[in-house]
Amino acid sequence: MRKVMLVDDEYMLLRGLKLLIDWESLGLEIVNTEQNPSLALKYLQDNDIDILISDMNMPEMPGPEFVAAAKKIQPAMELIVISGYSDFDYVRAGLQQNAVNYLRKPIDTDELLATLRGALDRLQAQQQQHQIASLAIQTQTRTLLTTDREPEQLQIIQALGIEFATPTTVRLIGVLNPLPPKDLVNYLRVIKAVKGFYTEREDFIIVFQGTTDQLNIFINEAPHQIGVAHRPFLIGAPIKNVGQLRTRYIQLRREIARQYFFETASGLRMMLPDTQESVSSTLPSYSEVKKALDGIDLTGFSIWLTHQFDAMKQANASDLLARQFALVVLLVLSDRLTKFDDKAAIIAAINHAKDVSDLKGQLQWVAELATEQGTQQFSRNVLAMRQIIKKRYPEQLSLAAVASELHLNAVYLGQLFKQEVGRSFAQFLNDYRVDVAVDLLRDSDLDIGQIAEAVGYQNSSYFYKLFKKQTGMSPGDYRKAGVLSS
């Protein structure tokens, strides 16, 4: 609904105007009526109006003076002036302030309707022009940040009025999922320091150039429901030249993804000058996780897991590293299970989890499953087989060779091992080798082929396929994600 305000010192005329036509059928709503033009100007300062209908003969303030002041407050507003005088100076004064028409008292219904329809047509055309201009700026801003072609960037910088060699600072700002987005759009359009903005899915990417004080005012005066108490504002590092635009944009995108993954609900976060890292740390090894979970109950596991993810969040860990950590925990938990048919599905769920809560839910379920299956009790022969694997995994072990060493029938021993462990001898051997490889990828400088050989595989391609099947990641990708980074 378009908003209308009526201003006339005569109460009966105001009342009559409200009843003269069906305003709602035109898509109009009379949101305020004022008899005092001074009060009307005060209202206009705090409230948006689409159409102002005003008398031109009011004792408190001359009509031409009032409409000039009103138009200065809201230049885009449509004006309709009314007067009982035939004096053309009053008419001309109103028209010079872009009044759409002059209506003589008493007001003719058909003339009023025609005048209002004309005003609505102009407002619609004006809105379309603003939308076209806004879309053009959004397209330019997106291109500026996503292209690596400097000549094109320089043209857009000039068009948007961005200047690097000034006392003011150019930054990128991300606003996560503002609700409602229309309020933020309206706010951004009136802030001179906002050189451009566009949306990526539900988030806003903003190019801001201003002083620290201007930045603080911009954040603090944002629409209440969008402000930092309700939605995160991510303030990018200073951008000193055109060459840093794309780097800062990628940094901001990663931080937005991280905030969603670690479920940051609110709060202002200033990003560090050159990197998102504030703590240098490494991923816990398989051995460290196994030691931490030794003898822990379900409640303790949940507390420990929450603490680990909270620490990662504070250390600015990426979502990739959080998933990698979850895979290590899964490997440790799965070693306790005598039956685990859903390992592949859990690996897929970890790699596609949308946030930390999803990861914790998957791991909590596996931990509960391990608790239900109870503490494993192995026979003397199975214990001996497990010890052989753990001590001699780099060797070319086989079930037949181990059975011969233990002076037992290979078929019988294989059946016994699978019955007690829940996996075949070969599966357990492969799982254990991958567990060792996880630590080697984290702690050694050996290349992938050397690690494959160190854990018992002469064929590095086979090791690659096996590792990816067990963890959902290639050995190379796993190693790259092994240090907390953005």
Report what the structure shows:
With 486 residues, this protein is α/β, with parallel strands linked by helices. It has three domains: 2-125, Rossmann fold (3-Layer(aba) Sandwich); 160-270, Alpha-Beta Plaits; 286-376 and 423-480, no CATH class. The chain is 55% helix and 13% strand. The chain contains 21 helices and twelve strands. It has helices at 11-20, 37-46, 63-73, 88-96, 109-146, 150-160, 181-189, 212-220, 245-261, 286-293, 298-314, 319-334, 343-351, 356-373, 380-392, 399-405, 410-421, 425-443, 448-454, 460-471, 475-480, and strands at 2-7, 28-34, 51-55, 57-58, 61-62, 78-83, 99-104, 169-175, 194-200, 203-210, 233-235, 269-270. The chain has a five-stranded parallel sheet, with helices on both faces. Helix 9 (245-261) links the parallel strand 11 (233-235) and strand 12 (269-270). Helix 10 (286-293) packs across helix 12 (319-334). The protein is elongated and about 120 Å long. The chain starts with a strand and ends in a 6-residue tail after the last helix. Residues 276-280 have low confidence and may be disordered.
Shape: elongated
Roughly what fraction of the amino acids lie in strands? 5-15%
Largest sheet: 5 strands, parallel
What is the averaged pLDDT score?
Answer: 86
The structural class is alpha/beta
DSSP helix fraction: 55-70%
Please mark out the parts with pLDDT under 50 across 5 or more consecutive residues, or reply none: 276-280
- End-to-end span in angstroms? 46 Å
Query: Count the helices. How many?
Result: 21
**Quaternary organisation of the protein chains:** single chain
Q: For the CA atoms, what is the radius of gyration?
A: 35 Å
What count of domains describes the coordinates? 3
Order of strands in the sheet with most strands:
2-1-3-6-7
Number of strands: 12
Modified residues (4-aspartylphosphate): 55
Protein name: Two-component system response regulator
Domain HTH araC/xylS-type: 383-481
GO molecular function: DNA-binding transcription factor activity; sequence-specific DNA binding; transferase activity
